[in-house]
Amino acid sequence: MKPLKKASRVVMSDVVDLAEAGARIIAGWPEAFFAVLNHCRQDARTPGGLSSMNDALPGLTRRMTKLRDERWRERIAKALGVYVAASHQSGSPIVGRNVLGARHPAVAQIARDLGMRSTSLVAALDRLPVELVAMRTTVRGRSRRLVSTEAIQQVQRLRLDELSIKAVARLTGLSPGRIVQLIDAGLLAKHTHRLSREAVVGLTQSFLAAGRSNTLDTDAISLRRALRYCVPVCWTSQLIRSVLDGSLIVFVPKGVKLLAEAMISEARCREWVAHLKLADGGGLTIPECAELLHFKQEVVYHLVRVGLLPVHTVKVGRRRTARMTTLEAVEHFKRKYAALVHLADDAGMNHRSALSWAKAQGIALVSGPSIDGGRQYFALRPLLNGSNP
Questions:
Q1: Is residue 130 located within the same domain as residue 91?
Q2: Does residue 276 lie within any of the structural domains?
Q3: Which of 214, 238, 271 delimits the end of a domain?
Q4: Which of 226, 249, 271 is the last residue of a domain?
Q5: Alpha carbon distance 339, 309 (integer Å)
Q6: For 109-129, b where at least 16 C-beta lie within 10 A, e where not — what string?
Q7: DSSP label at 48?
Q8: Which of 43-52, 61-70, 299-308 has the least mean pLDDT?
Q9: Are residues 288 and 370 in the same domain?
Q10: Distance of alpha carbon 329 from alpha carbon 346, whole angstroms
């Protein structure tokens, strides 16, 4: 009843209830204390969510410092440390620097122990399930992670399975540029500039299993050589898929382990490239045109020189040029001209008497050894002989 002072009154029943609640907690220590903490938690318990001590139990550690009984203050601090450590095994872990007990290792410390960069470790942790790595975002936007022992073990397994693009190139025998093409096509998956060894081995085994082990073709060359001289880099994925679906045949000699060591017919490979170029709407080189016409390259070069097969010059790279033709030009040549040996075969004539037979039939010869020094004779097709100039 002091003047100018606010009087307060405590009901005896409140004091009794508080004493009884405290007695129950002491009697069931520490499980009853843990139950009270679970009831008082104020954080949002989301799967994979990480909470700080101040968010989960605001003001608790500050109030603990005000306890006058030193023995009970230490006992509660130890129990709180056990409670926080047990939460690390649950779906709603708590972290706090002002809690007794062993602190969880930071990402930087784990990265140093594993011998890797922190950014690489974070990228690997982000690939793991949320149950293994709890994360929270601070007020300033920084990320904090609680990494479990199982997560560290999985990161180690992922690290052993990861390969760089250059390492994959050595493992398959392909160039790094072609590996990038396989990644872009979805044949190989990449995570932060790393590829899975298991996926690379699986693709290699599937490719080699799709090949044949019987007698090689006479013009068989290694796939490494075929890729270097016949197949552009941009069509690497199409070649792999063609082999896997059986539309392109490769041969796998005994003991071959690298993808690039498989063998392939050079003629079939060039013909496949030519058809792919035609489907892509691109031009044909003279060697590719020779594959389509089933002539030797020297013969096609001579047809170009004498003007029977039109070509145009295109720029390749910075300084190189190349002569290209089109599918329409090839089809026009096939409709208008024919090799004399083919006409003789169709008529049932011997190759040696084909020239005299053509002259007796009045077939117009347009190219050949006695006309322009060509390797073989070409003539106008008989059905078009009257209309062709």
A1: no
A2: no
A3: 271
A4: 271
A5: 13
A6: ebbeeeeeeeebbbbbbeebe
A7: T
A8: 43-52
A9: yes
A10: 24
- d(CA 351, CA 263) in angstroms, rounded, equals 35
Tokens of 345: 């075969």
Q: Tell me, yes or no, whether 232 and 180 share the same domain.
A: yes
In the chain, the number of structural domains is: 4
Highest mean pLDDT among 172-181, 183-192, 281-290, 312-321: 172-181
* Selection from 177, 270, 183, 184 nearest residue 221 by Cα: 270
Cα angle at 22 between 21 and 23, to 5 degrees?
90
Pairing, β 284-285 against β 312-316? unpaired
Both 83 and 124 in one domain: the answer is no
User: From CA 307, how far away is CA 378, in angstroms rounded?
Assistant: 13
Could you read off the pLDDT of 72-123 as tens digits, one per residue? 888 888 888 888 777 777 767 777 666 766 566 677 777 787 777 777 777 7
The reply to whether 300 and 380 lie within a common domain is yes
Tokens of 287: 């060697």
Coil, helix or strand for 35?
Answer: helix
Q: Is 212 helix (H, G, I), strand (E, B) or coil?
A: strand
CB 340 within 8 A of CB 368: yes
Query: Looking at the domain assignment, is residue 215 inside a domain?
Result: yes
Helices (H), the chain: 12-27, 31-40, 53-56, 60-64, 70-87, 107-114, 118-126, 149-161, 165-172, 176-184, 197-209, 223-229, 236-244, 266-280, 286-293, 297-305, 327-336, 340-347, 354-361
Percentage, residues of the chain above pLDDT 90:
4
> What does the DSSP assignment read for 259-314?
GGG-EEEHHHHHHHHHHHHHHHT--EEHHHHHHHHT--HHHHHHHHHTTSS--EEE
Of 307, 293, 311, residue with least CA distance to 367: 307
Determine the residue type at 133: V
Which domain does 124 fall in, by range? 107-162
Q: Which residue has the tokens 């008082």?
A: 40
